[in-house]
Specification:
It is built from three helices and four strands; from the N terminus they run βαββααβ. It has 110 residues and is α+β, with helices and mostly antiparallel strands. It has one domain: Uncharacterised protein PF12112 family, DUF3579 (Alpha-Beta Plaits, 2-Layer Sandwich). The chain has a four-stranded antiparallel β-sheet. The longest helix is centred in the C-terminal third of the chain and has 13 residues, at 76-88. It starts with 7 loop residues before the first strand and ends in a 14-residue tail after the last strand.
């Protein structure tokens, strides 16, 4: 169950019984379906990239889709689709927040 206060959910490509979910491109497919749900609504060419609210990624070697709460605020049915996709396929879901990598500093010579 996803809490109503979740800022982001991570749909992980691991089933409840620990198996890797197939097909191997499931994350890209799910994110592709959600591509038109974005700030400002669909734009010309928006079908060519992912929505910032539903992004496929790999975390610790596990394919995931990060779904932002703003998707729920913009289009509750799209949010429900993602949550129900995870539930219907027995995928593990975690409530978390994706933190960007820290910028790397240039190396200096001594």
């Amino acid at each position: 169950m996803v809490s109503p206060n979740a800022k982001e959910i991570f749909i992980q490509g691991i089933t409840q019984d620990g198996r890797t979910f197939r097909p191997s491109d499931w994350a890209e497919r799910l994110a592709g379906v959600m591509c038109s749900f974005r700030p400002g609504g669909p734009q010309p060419g928006s079908h060519l990239n992912y929505s910032p609210w539903c992004v496929p990624t790999v975390i610790n070697g596990i394919k995931c889709v990060v779904v932002n709460r703003e998707l729920r605020d913009f289009e509750p049915m799209a949010w429900d689709f993602c949550v129900n996709f995870a539930k219907d396929n027995g995928l593990q879901v975690a409530e978390a927040c994706l933190v960007p990598d820290a910028p790397t500093l240039p190396k200096t010579s001594a």
